[in-house]
Amino acid sequence: MTAPGPLTEFLPVILPLIWAAILALAVFLYVLLGGYDLGLGVLFPFAPSHKDRDAMMSSVAPFWDGNETWLVLGGGGLLAAFPLAYAVMLPALYIPIILMLIGLILRGVAFEFRFKSQRYRFLWDTAFAGGSILAALMQGAVMGAFVQGFAVTDNRFSGGAFDWLTPFSVVTSVALLSGYVLLSAAWLIMKGDEALKEWAYGVCRFALIVVSVFIVVFSLWTPFLHPEIAARWFKPGNMVMLSPVPLITAASVVALWMALQRRQRYLPFLLATALFILCYTGLAVSLFPFIIPPGITIWQAAAAPDSQLFMLYGAIPILPIILGYTAYSYYVFWEASEHDTYH
Question: What region does 9 belong to: left with phi over 0, alpha with psi -120 to 50, or beta?
């Protein structure tokens, strides 16, 4: 039980905000860090040579499994901190989540066995690429279904098994896959040798054009999914206050294109990351405070304050540890993976 005091009455308001921020951070870090290695799988069949495919896998070998930490944290945190949201979303998204997990299993197994098999390496290449494409598409479908919202009656999902499969979620799937390709191409620009980098520059330019088109499409489409989203973006006062988001997004697209033209090495990945941050910010602005659009807020879906506070005692030390070892692993293995890429 929480001790009585002036702060106690504010806990039901503050704790859901803190946990929403923690889960938002976990989801974003998974999309960013898991996104570039999923994107490598999408590009895998199109790599210029077998040697380049080896280099692509070597460039993420020290990092890819650690990136999945954020997916586990996001799923577990949702169950613990917002059980109502978990109870609604899981039945609504059984099929895409299961397909996503199958894709992740395929690519994980292929990652481990590909270097150990000579005779059947082409099968593991296919599994790696197919699993990556499947996982990326299903993650996009989950995101699209989440933005559209779910049919809820008496705090239970009341829709059908395929409600998630709509034109909006299909377009979202392709859009997220394109974003992952953009990230992975920018990653290869940092990590590849000269020939692989040259190929990655071309891929990155093409992916940037596709992603830019999707940004415009969703900027026009998303506000019409729910009246609340349209009102938030198109009220005169809000349009001025929120205008930095689309303006900075447009500036980032232009800056990324120029960085590619100038053959910058590190700037393309940083700017691609900025694009993801800006799109994520726009999505958060559109949906907050709903965790189940369009009707259940983070406060309505939250666990009891005592439960959230108890879990927060564990999250406070754990989050810096996870962030610290993630950063340290990139620091330690950066030069080693770069050396492997060249060989």
Answer: alpha
- Total-model pTM: 0.89
**Structure token pair of residue 339:** 């050396």
Q: What angle do CA 125, 98, 179 make, to 5 degrees?
A: 60
**4 assigned to some structural domain:** no
- 93-116 per-position pLDDT tens digit: 999 999 999 999 988 888 778 777
In the chain, the number of structural domains is: 1
Position 338 scores a pLDDT of 53
- Whether 237 and 211 have beta carbons less than 8 Å apart is answered as no
Q: Compute the distance between CA of residue 52 and CA of residue 233 in angstroms, rounded to an integer.
A: 45
- Segments of the chain with pLDDT less than 50: 1, 3, 339, 341-343
Residue 108 lies in a domain: yes
In contact, 279 and 212? CB cutoff 8 Å:
no
What range does the domain containing 296 cover? 14-342
Report residue 54 CA to chain centroid gap: 25
Of 152, 165, 175, the C-alpha closest to 293 is 152
